[in-house]
Amino acid sequence: MEKLIEHYLLRHKYCPLPALGVLELKEHTAVLPIGENKCNAPYPQIIFSSKQMAASPFVHFIANKKGVSNEEANQMLVEYCNDIVHLSAIQEKKINHTGKFYVDVDGSLSFKQYILPEEFFPSVIAERVIHPNSVHQIQVGDQQHSSDFMSGYLKSIKKINQSKWWPWALGSAIIAIVMIAAYFLSGQYNAGFGNKAPIKKISAPATYQSIQP
After folding, report:
1. Which structural domain range is residue 69 located in?
2. DSSP H or E run through 131
3. pLDDT at 69
4. What are the tens digits of pLDDT across the range 15-46?
5. CB within 8 Å of 145: residues ≥ 6 apart
6. DSSP calls for 145-156
7. From residue 171, how far is each of 177, 179, 180 by CA, in Å?
8. Whether residue 149 is found in the same domain as residue 90
9. Mean pLDDT in the chain?
10. Same domain, 169 and 86
11. What separation in angstroms does the CA of 57 have from each of 25, 78, 143, 149?
């Protein structure tokens, strides 16, 4: 049964398992790591989910491969799936070169894909070429943004910084005008330098006497 599951999964990109869910084969696209002159090859990933799909096409596939009736093929598939449903915490159900079913610490049925050798998916050398007028991705911290987004963001920051100076300048000018007006209105000024307050006359002490001859 395990080989039949693998063959059907590779051919149709999915395999329904009654009372369990479905195995799906997803193809990840090639990846260009930021800051590295290489391109990681696309790789397949097998995902198990609990969604239910019609199993009759897979049953018909089993019947043709085994040379049995659809009823017998359906019974074989149901028994296989029931064995997986009743797995205990220390048991596993392996599917040859694909992966294995097991029960996790929470008591939920899970599927773990076998890791394929890296030699099957070699990386290739890739030089990043950026055209000045084209939109491209830019790494900002742990996020990626388009060049259009970052250009607009930087322009908005520049406008905000440029618009911050004039309120301070206007406020400083108003304060200076108020202080100057208060000084002139107080009367403590004259046309020249200094202030209006008079200087008190102080008589020198008599430290000596003049004797007439």
Report:
1. 2-125
2. none
3. 93
4. 999 989 999 988 878 777 777 778 888 888 88
5. 137, 138, 153
6. EEHHHHHHHHHH
7. 10, 13, 14
8. no
9. 77
10. no
11. 17, 14, 43, 48
**Which of 71, 97, 125 is a domain's end point?**
125
**Pair (87, 121) in one structural domain:** yes
Domain boundary among 91, 125, 159: 125
| Same domain for 117 and 47 | yes
Task: Kindly provide the b/e burial profile for residues 187-199, where b requires at least 16 CB atoms within 10 angstroms of the residue's own CB.
Answer: eeeeeeeeeeeee
Q: Which helix (H) or strand (E) holds 205?
A: none
Q: Residues 122-149: pLDDT tens digits?
A: 777 777 676 666 666 666 666 666 766 7
Report the number of distinct structural domains present in the chain.
Answer: 2
Backbone angles phi, psi at 138, to 5 degrees: -125, 130
DSSP 33: -
